[in-house]
Specification:
Number of helices: 10
CATH class: Mainly Alpha
Distance between the termini: 20 Å
CATH superfamily: AhpD-like
Strand content: under 5%
Shape: globular
Structural class: mainly alpha
Length: 175
């Protein structure tokens, strides 16, 4: 039994749909295995739910090269920073903040261990979880310009939404 299958079994009845959705969104679709698991790892980390993060990482390590997992981990951390910063600038809507340089290092986004366009997809999904409109728009644009389709984007966001729901569902389950 995979770690995610065991985790699905730990979901309370009130989150039964989420368990079924989890199985579905991590199945076949427009995304390659590296894209699917990279999005899942980055999003599981972004949910801050330790049981979900552990299960996704365990299954991802069986499915994809470590470079994909490292990129997803880097994206989760960088988007935690960027989404706060750029969401603030967007919400305040003062040109004076937008004209200031961020001066926040994020070189890893430009130097992935695996695929640059896949890393953009991971960043898009995490930005959706974190609610940063400016980052969602920017990463969606770069992903599409990099050759991914709206089907890729849609599947990545379905994974993000489901993992966020599973994380919340687990909070209602016994530890």
């Amino acid at each position: 039994m995979s770690a995610l299958e065991a985790l699905r079994g730990a979901l309370p009845d009130t989150a039964r749909d989420l368990g079924l959705n989890l199985q579905m969104v991590l199945g076949e679709g427009a995304l390659s295995a590296a894209q699917r698991w990279g999005v899942a790892v980055a999003c599981a980390i972004a949910t801050r739910e330790p049981r979900l993060r552990g299960a996704v990482l365990a299954d991802a390590r069986e499915a994809v090269p470590s470079a994909v997992i490292e990129d997803a981990q880097a994206v989760a951390a960088l988007m935690a920073m960027n989404n706060v910063y750029y969401r603030f600038r967007h919400m305040v809507q003062k040109p004076s903040y937008s004209q200031r340089p961020a001066r926040l290092r994020m070189n890893r986004l430009a130097q992935p261990a695996a695929s640059k366009v896949d890393m953009e997809l991971f960043a898009l999904a995490v930005s959706a979880i974190n609610g940063c409109e400016a980052c969602v728009r920017a990463h969606e644009k770069v992903a599409l310009e990099g050759g991914l389709s709206e089907d890729h984007v849609h599947d990545a966001i379905r994974i993000a939404a489901t993992l966020q729901g599973v994380a919340i569902g687990l909070h209602g389950a016994e530890p």
